[in-house]
Amino acid sequence: MQWLATVGPAILLAMDSKAKQLGKFSEQLMTSSKPMFVLAFLIISTLITTSTLMAQKAVTPPMAQETITPLMSKDLAGFPGKEVLMYTVDFPPGFSSPVHRHNAQVSVYVLEGSVVMQVREGKEVTLRPGETFYEGPNDIHVVSRNASSTKSAKFLVFLIHKKGDPLVIPAK
């Protein structure tokens, strides 16, 4: 027991010294690991966000677009620089086109389904197969959509415009 009294304080002093060294090492580790912790956090956050967006993209169907099928294009006899175009337009269920104009005389004839049409300062109308709609060269087409969220709609367009001009011009 005597030796414990003699050696004990030396052991305690050595242990205290080792504890202090361990404390300094732990403090250095914590100080140097902060940037590593931040980097790991950023990497994990990026991976979570990216995988969430990829999963969302995988389950979100692409935005449906209208399908335009050209049928005829002819120069308008007696009116140099003017042409007549005829094409069909298919609106998928729920489709709505942005506000636009045609800078042309446009006649629409509904073939299938129902479409809702309106020009600025005009009345909104729902058209069914066999019904028609007209847009003048200065009209702004503010509503052009499929009336159904479950069925497609198809209509025939007969258009007279200046040859080479764009068919659709975005408008406000």
Structural description of this entry:
By secondary structure, the chain is an alpha+beta fold. The protein is built from one helix and ten strands, in the order αββββββββββ. The protein has one helix at 2-59; strands spanning 67-75, 82-91, 100-101, 105-112, 115-119, 125-127, 132-135, 141-146, 153-162, 169-170. The longest helix has 58 residues, at 2-59. The radius of gyration is 37 Å and the shape is globular.
Task: Characterize this entry briefly.
The protein is an alpha+beta fold and 172 residues long. The chain has one helix spanning 2-59; strands spanning 67-75, 82-91, 100-101, 105-112, 115-119, 125-127, 132-135, 141-146, 153-162, 169-170.
Tally the beta strands. Answer: 10
Q: Strand fraction band? A: 25-35%
How would you state the average pLDDT, rounded?
A: 79
Cα separation of the termini = 98 Å
Structural class: alpha+beta
- Helical content stands at 25-40%
**Can you count the helices?**
1
Q: Give the helices and strands as they follow along the chain.
A: HEEEEEEEEEE
Low-pLDDT runs? 38-42, 55-60
Radius of gyration: 37 Å
Q: Biggest β-sheet, characterized?
A: 5 strands, antiparallel
- For the biggest β-sheet, the strand order reads 1-2-9-4-7
**Global morphology:** globular
